[in-house]
Amino acid sequence: MTRSAGPGDGSAPPGYQIVQDPAGFSMAVPTGFTRSYENSRVCYYSEGRRFRIGVQLQRPVPEGPIGAMRAADAKGPTTYPGYRDGQVVETTHDGFRAGRWEFVWDGSAQDAGTRYTYDLSWNEGGRMMDVWISSPVDSRIEARRQFDAAVASFRLSGR
Questions:
Q1: Percentages of the chain per state (helix, strand, coil), in multiples of 5
Q2: Domains along the chain?
Q3: Which of 73, 85, 89, 97 is buried deepest, with most CB atoms within 10 A?
Q4: Which H or E element spans position 155?
Q5: This prediction's pTM
Q6: pLDDT tens digits for range 52-90
């Protein structure tokens, strides 16, 4: 189920809609993105899958969100072909300690080119949230806007 933001309600920027996802969260995604569930992750895709917003709600890990991001960064070269420019920083999200990870990789055979990924993870409601976006590297500024809108509007259901 989706809803468009009304004037002045601040829930989603123009050109976005709030999705009420059956996995237990809501967030803003660009209008026209479609949902898919793959490998325990919820994904919202643009046409042609150029932009991919993903969400995974999982059990917290002992090392916390920043530790999870550091571990993922360390595994980057074996997980992502052509992995480079990985950066992990400690940050916060809605008052929760969080980890943000950014990196470049070569993309898969279906991607037809290099990709940029933004990823944010934090613990909330007894779970670890992981929200990310992947896009062609030359569209990373647009991807950052989409990522920022998704993260800023992200809410667990019932919150």
A1: 25, 45, 30
A2: 2-156 (3.40.1000.10)
A3: 73
A4: strand 155-156
A5: 0.89
A6: 999 999 999 999 999 999 999 999 999 999 999 999 999
pLDDT tens per residue, range 119-143: 999 999 999 999 999 999 999 999 9
**How many CB atoms are closer than 10 A to CB 112?**
11
| Helix (H), strand (E) at residue 27 | strand 25-30
Q: How far is CA 68 from CA 3, 11, 12, in A?
A: 33, 29, 29
Determine the distance from the C-alpha atom of residue 50 to the mean position of all C-alpha atoms in its chain, rounded to a whole number: 14
Residue 6 has pLDDT above 50, yes or no: no
Which amino acid, one-letter code, is at 130?
D
Tokens of 121: 């993870």
Question: What is the radius of gyration, based on Cα positions, of the chain?
Answer: 15
Q: Please, is 124 exposed, middle or buried when counting C-beta atoms within 10 Å of its C-beta (0-12, 13-18, 19+)?
A: buried
Strands 34-38 and 41-45: antiparallel
DSSP state letter for 12 = S
